[in-house]
Write a structure and sequence with these properties.
The chain has 297 residues and is of the alpha/beta class. Helix content is 39%, strand content 21%. Strands 3, 4, 5, 6, 7, 8, 9, 10 and 11 form a nine-stranded mixed sheet that branches.
């Protein structure tokens, strides 16, 4: 099987269209189309169903894609291991983190890491869904829950805390709640129902201070992204529960002196067993541990 054609097929299957695959590979749509047609001719089978909205893999295409994905993941892992044979850390390092940690904390400190290790090319993948490290969707992850997969190495980073926050302008207009029951008189902002969060009681502000069987408070806004929730809170819309790593040091927010705090959760640095001896991974892990020790959440 021709390696170049397989590479093009893998890109098309991931992108779902010739156009997007061409942008990824730097090839024209016509070149991509010819390569796929040639591969289908070589294999004597159709790999895609073509329709107006894009491409869908056939059953045979699904089989080839799964195999090709595993092959390319192994090749990428081997490349990483060979690169790490150099004396200094170098090469690409794909880091995945949640939107909150990635945009409000890690992005502030990644410059220092890159200046310390200029030969490491960092790619940050910031999203709340968990990427598959074993399939090399990323090299390392900062996660808000302990992983259970046996092929992943984990290092606990620290315990994070959540508190209620509001903008000074909101508190000036509506007053400052001091006990949980006071929240009945305030506008509450919460995560949307679809928010992917491992934290228990994410929307604790809706029920805290309520008697058993009493209806929870109704939020004025649901938003399934912690960074967006912080921005809405900064605007003076209402009170939100935010992790301290998002809100601490933010002069546009005030931590409320409530008689109760929000949930706590542990953060973990996670990477595949195959990268145990990777210099890039090890120096990045040590950098995170040091920066978190300096930061007081």
């Amino acid at each position: 099987m021709d390696w170049d054609k397989l590479r093009v097929f893998h890109a098309v299957a991931e992108a779902g269209s010739f156009t997007h695959a061409g942008e990824t590979l730097g090839l024209s749509q016509s070149t991509i189309s010819r390569q796929i047609a040639a591969l289908e001719h070589d294999l004597r089978t159709a790999l895609f169903h073509r329709h107006a909205r894009g491409l869908i893999l056939t059953e045979q295409g699904e089989l080839l894609f799964r195999t090709a994905h595993e092959v390319f993941a192994k090749v990428a892992m081997t490349e990483a291991m060979l690169t790490d044979s150099a004396e200094r850390p170098r090469g690409e390092l794909k880091v995945t983190a949640t939107v909150g940690i990635g945009t409000t904390w890690l992005a502030k400190h990644v410059r220092e890491f890159i200046e310390l290790y200029p030969e490491v090319r960092v790619t940050m993948l910031v999203e709340d869904r968990e990427l598959d490290l074993s399939m090399r969707q990323a090299d390392v992850a900062i996660r808000l829950r302990e992983p259970t997969q046996p092929d992943l190495i984990k290092r606990r980073l620290m315990t994070m805390h959540s508190h209620a926050y509001a903008a000074p302008a909101y508190l000036k207009q509506h007053g400052t709640p001091r006990v949980a029951a006071d929240l009945d008189k305030h506008r509450i902002l919460v995560y949307g129902e679809a928010a992917p969060s491992p934290i228990a009681d994410t929307n604790w502000l809706l029920a805290v201070g309520k008697a058993a069987g009493e209806e929870p408070r109704v939020p004025v806004l649901q938003l399934n992204n912690v960074y967006g929730l912080m921005i809405a809170c900064e605007s003076g819309l209402g009170i939100a529960s935010l992790p301290d790593y998002v809100a601490q040091g933010n002069k546009r927010l005030v931590q409320l002196p409530l008689d109760i705090q929000g949930p706590t959760f542990d953060t973990f640095f996670v990477y595949p067993e195959e990268l145990r001896n990777s210099k890039r991974v090890n120096v990045f892990r040590d950098f995170l541990v040091r920066k978190l020790a300096e930061w007081r959440f």
